[in-house]
Request: fold
Amino acid sequence: MTPHRILTGITTSGTPHLGNYVGSVRPSVRMSLRPSAQSFYFLADYHALIKVGDPARVQRSTLEIAATWLACGLDPERVTFYRQSDIPEIPELTWLLTCVTGKGLLNRAHAYKASVDKNNAAGEDPDAGVTAGLFMYPVLMAADILMFNAHEVPVGRDQIQHIEMARDIASSFNHLYGEHFTLPVAVIEEHVATLPGLDGRKMSKSYDNTIPLFAPREQLRKLITGIITDSRAPGEPKSVEGSALFQLYQAFATSEETAAMENAYADGIAWGDAKQMLFERLDREIAPLREVYDSLIQNPTQIEKTLSAGAEKARAVASPFCTRLRHAAGLRSLELASTTHASKTAKSLAPAFKQYRDKDGLFYFKLLNREGAVLLQSKGFTSPRESAQAVAALQQQGEDALTGLWDQLSYQGDREAIATALGREGS
Ligand code: TRP
Reply:
């Protein structure tokens, strides 16, 4: 059985703020600590190019987001932590997926549609200022997810449609080329609040109302002082409903602390005092992380090292899988094709397993159908016994054994043809 895989990415287009921390970084670090999970966390820097045309900013943001994740407790020994652009198999898979993705599907993507609507409203050409990158965004994201056969993808609500599209794209590919991809599901943290920003609207780069997660202590205090409140005087009871200050406090406080703040509001706490309480509560959680963050930022070489080690781990999965997918789509050795053709003359052959030792000294097996076409191709095993065990599993359990052999195969052809061949093999 493949273990339960969790995967998520953050676009490296800005400086992490409190909203990113509460909505994404903190819950995904917690999730990565679940013992049964195998997690993949990455810096989506290819995605950043869709929004940001400033190379220095992409680089800086990549450093800041990597340092943020590490400072917040992501353990690169436990999880696979990498930078998207270090994995050349991702753009490769993007193309394979592009060719099974309906253009109509992409026309319906919220982000693209929003741009078109805006252009239409302004009387512009519908696609004015829209790059093909923006249009293709969901396909690149599907490649991120499907590359590692992730089961669960923790994301914000605004990303749900992208996960649904990844499922659609995976189904199209599976339908055409065999069951290669797991269909992912979005995981939305229901109890995680969307944080308000300084002006009370959702905290977001685009509203310019953010509080940087690792602002120095004094700057944090100043920003908090600037949070918009109503004009009630000290002593006047205040409402927690719609209070940005209260919502921020709640995202960091225990339920007892929150209840106490609620009472303080009812008792007419002065806004200045409430802000001071929020500042101290925030800083209590953040200060120790900030210290780690500051030292990581000073040491980009260390982060580069961590990311290259992560890329190596990720590519150990991505590279053989990509080979298998290329093969499935027909990007494969001409020798295999000629085998198929030559043996067409020997039509009466029964489906068969062939076990052999290759020039590399490793042991392989393949399953051929009656026409001699390859249905399954194993990876190289160091001993003939391992190869024989896999063959035995297939002979005994039929296609049910395929799930367990997932990472021992470099190519898997049409599922139905495999089932037929396994049904007949040896009879
Ligand atoms: N699009 C996501 C965002 O902006 C980032 C992202 C890119 C992502 N690829 C992903 C998230 C794959 C989850 C899985 O938030």
